[in-house]
């Protein structure tokens, strides 16, 4: 799978891509680089092989035939996820020759190209909600000699016309497993998708299988990186104003604590926190443990001040430090799980439970808004982007 990705001529699938020309806290400005322009090639190749996600569409624009140059304002609406994360997920997907594959969230067509290479293009369907994305991907996949079925539609409704599928891959986060995808999973099949709340901080990877007998089993694994929410998905973020407020400790109250916060690698705990106390976003770029609740304005920052001593500064109605330790206690009592059983009932109910049953929560849909602190629009609103620390 990794060999297929490495051999993929990325400049053919992404002959144009956006380079950001503004700092994160400045009004966004981008430059659309174009492989057809000799002066752009070195920078474009660096972008495509940087290991970061690659922006390929601005404000829902047509992709084919567009002019290179500057763009300002708005947001990126389609991206190609980081190659490292894509490679890891495709390894888990375990594509085989002859598999019928449904790739949801076409983007630049990278996953579709790998699926065609491994499984044969006759059984591959790639689906995107944006017709401009679909049209561009189809043209560029054909340039590589691949002819999957490229369709435009709502991926959460699946594409039953050519199902059922042996493998289903979703390249954007959803709040719960879409029932239509489970229904289209063939006996012996496997599906992978990121399950998340409105926070981008602690994603979970859902692995769903259907046994040859037809029985569906699913697992939710806490992971470091996952896809971001797609079109219409609720996204929380810490705005520049909010982060500045935390940095200057405006109105903060400080106390000492002997409690040790969970390690970053205790991902099963952070995943549980995200669902049991939703609405939290971590600032991974901060030197100290910094978490905010944008909707109510609460935040906390914890820094070590000696052996087993922590200085905790907090503001707002939520006691985030207490919420963390409440979940951490329950998580340890449940055996410190890294993964959870995901139960998908015939009536549509979905519940996540630790193996011993001591820690659990129900998956629900989230509201489809795009607000962060103080109701500001999300400047990082990007379809199919990967969450990266």
Automatic annotation (TrEMBL):
Localization annotation = Cytoplasm
Q: Which keywords describe this protein according to UniProt?
A: Cytoplasm, Methyltransferase, S-adenosyl-L-methionine, Transferase
Please list the residue ranges that the record marks as compositionally biased, kind Basic and acidic residues: 377-389
Q: Which GO terms describe its molecular function?
A: methyltransferase activity
Q: Which domain of life is it from?
A: Bacteria
EC number(s) from the headed UniProt entry = 2.1.1.77
According to its UniProt record, which protein family does this protein belong to?
Answer: Belongs to the methyltransferase superfamily. L-isoaspartyl/D-aspartyl protein methyltransferase family.
Q: What is the name attached to this protein's record? A: Protein-L-isoaspartate O-methyltransferase
Classification from the root reads: Bacteria, Bacillati, Actinomycetota, Actinomycetes, Kitasatosporales
């Amino acid at each position: 799978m990794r060999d297929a990705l490495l051999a993929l001529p990325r400049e053919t699938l992404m002959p144009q891509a956006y380079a950001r020309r503004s700092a994160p806290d400045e009004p966004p400005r981008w430059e659309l680089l174009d492989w057809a322009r000799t002066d752009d090639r070195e920078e474009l190749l660096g972008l495509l092989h940087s290991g970061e996600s690659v922006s390929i569409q601005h404000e829902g624009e047509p992709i084919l035939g567009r002019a290179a140059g500057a763009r300002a304002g708005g947001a990126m609406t389609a991206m190609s996820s980081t190659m490292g994360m894509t490679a890891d997920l495709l390894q888990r997907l375990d594509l085989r020759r002859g598999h019928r594959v449904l790739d949801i969230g076409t983007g630049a067509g990278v996953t579709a190209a790998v699926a065609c290479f491994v499984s044969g293009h006759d059984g591959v369907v790639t689906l995107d909600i944006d017709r401009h994305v679909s049209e561009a991907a189809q043209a560029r996949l054909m340039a590589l000699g691949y002819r999957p079925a490229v369709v435009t539609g709502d991926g959460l409704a699946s594409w039953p016309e050519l199902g059922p599928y042996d493998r289903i891959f979703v390249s954007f986060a959803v709040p719960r497993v879409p029932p239509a995808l489970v229904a289209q999973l063939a006996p012996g099949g496997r599906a992978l998708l990121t399950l998340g709340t409105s926070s981008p901080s602690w994603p979970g990877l859902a692995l769903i299988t259907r046994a040859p007998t037809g029985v569906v089993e699913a697992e939710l694994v806490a992971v470091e990186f996952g896809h971001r929410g797609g079109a219409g998905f609720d996204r929380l973020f810490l705005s520049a104003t909010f982060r500045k407020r935390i940095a200057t400790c405006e109105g903060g109250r400080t106390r000492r604590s002997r409690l040790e916060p969970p390690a970053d690698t205790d991902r099963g705990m952070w995943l549980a926190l995200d669902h049991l106390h939703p609405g939290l976003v971590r600032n991974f770029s901060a030197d100290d443990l910094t978490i905010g609740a944008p909707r109510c304005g609460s935040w906390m920052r914890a820094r070590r001040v000696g052996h087993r001593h922590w200085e905790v500064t907090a503001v707002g109605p939520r006691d985030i430090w207490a919420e963390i330790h409440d979940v951490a206690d329950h998580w340890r009592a449940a055996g410190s799980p890294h993964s959870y059983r995901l139960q998908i009932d015939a009536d549509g109910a979905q519940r996540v439970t630790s193996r011993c049953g001591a820690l659990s929560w129900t998956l629900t849909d989230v509201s489809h808004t795009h607000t962060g602190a103080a109701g500001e629009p999300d400047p990082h609103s990007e379809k199919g982007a990967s969450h990266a620390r």
